[in-house]
Amino acid sequence: xxxxxxxxxxxxxxxxxxxxxxxxxxxxxxxxxxxxxxxxxxxxxxxxxxxxxxxxxxxxxxxxxxxxxxxxxxxxxxx
Length: 79
Description:
By secondary structure, the chain is mainly alpha-helical.
């Protein structure tokens, strides 16, 4: 890279231009979330591996599980 005096020139690239399309957000049903959390709460289950098998990101499943443990669903029939 060319230098001028005590400064160094750096060229930066923007990863995404404003207005560029971003991937669609997926919406998971409450039933799917409940089934995933139920499976994640089973003893000995690797939650990260389960998330990968279900096609969700591990942090997403950990978040659903944490939310359930803080406040279980009020609707009967869900878990």
